[in-house]
Amino acid sequence: MRAAACVLGVVVVVAGLTTGCASSRRAPFPSGSASEAKDVPPPPAAARPVTQGLARPAAPALQPLPPCAPPPCTPPAEACWSGCGLPCEQGLGGWHVRALGGVSYWTGTDAADNCGYFGADIGHSLCGSCFGVDGFYRQHTAQFDRLPSGQDGGTFHSVGAKATYQRSFNGSRWFGWVGAGPEYFWTTDYLHDDSGFGVFGEGGLGYVVSRHVTIRAGVNVEGMYTSVGRKDPVNDGDNRWLWVVAPVIGLEIDF
Asked: Are 107 and 139 in contact (CB under 8 A)?
């Protein structure tokens, strides 16, 4: 009887140990049944582990910067001129003055000896274009041979108006210029002085130093119908055409 009780006790102990091992191999639920475990909410997103390999959000595309606006132009500021070509080709114009000098070469019947040639212009560009209108003054001394021997010297003065045009070469600072118009002339200090109307023309090359300074080199041509300086017969009052061809260098100031 006592032996049977011992055997029964051993069986109960073994059965309890087996049941505990089986329960420990189940899913780890702290307590309650399987149905209760299903009702447990998942952990919040902040507590979830970060998974490697997820695609990162793309960076926003860079927008191109707007183009720079040109500086304001307030004449006569230097910023108004690009630095290339003539200012008048960019709509800039205004008043200008010129001073020039050179040597006069005479041709025609009883032409004079070569002497000095000087002049000045004052003018305005038409509405900021490369066309302009100038008033001019020219002075050139001249000495004529007289019969039977001797010379007759004096000075020719000319005033007039001319239409002008200038244009740069391929947008550079080098440019060409021309002008033409009528003139009125008179003489002083000759044995026989005269006055009358003539024609004037000019042309040449120039270089723009700055917005307000230009250098010019060219040729002035004047034609005068006059009786001054006749060699033979002397002072007969007959007129003839005298022509003056004068290479000149000039300086222009623009306002």
From this structure: no
Return the closest-CA partner of residue 204 out of 66, 63, 98.
98
Residues 162, 138 contacting (CB under 8 angstroms): no
- Cα–Cα dist 102/44, whole Å: 100
- Beta pairing, strands 131-145 & 115-125: antiparallel
Residue pLDDT, tens place only, 191-204: 889 999 999 999 99
Residue among 136, 177, 137, 142 nearest 157 (CA): 137
Higher pLDDT, 17 or 157: 157
What is the number of residues in the chain? Answer: 255
Strand partners, 164: 132, 179
User: Class for domain 80-254, per CATH?
Assistant: mainly beta
CA distance 203 to 217: 9
Closest CA to 243 of 193, 183, 191, 192: 183
Query: Is the previous residue joined to 233 through a cis bond, with omega within 30 degrees of 0?
Result: yes
Domain ranges, ordered by start, for the chain: 80-254
Least confident window among 24-38, 168-182, 201-215: 24-38
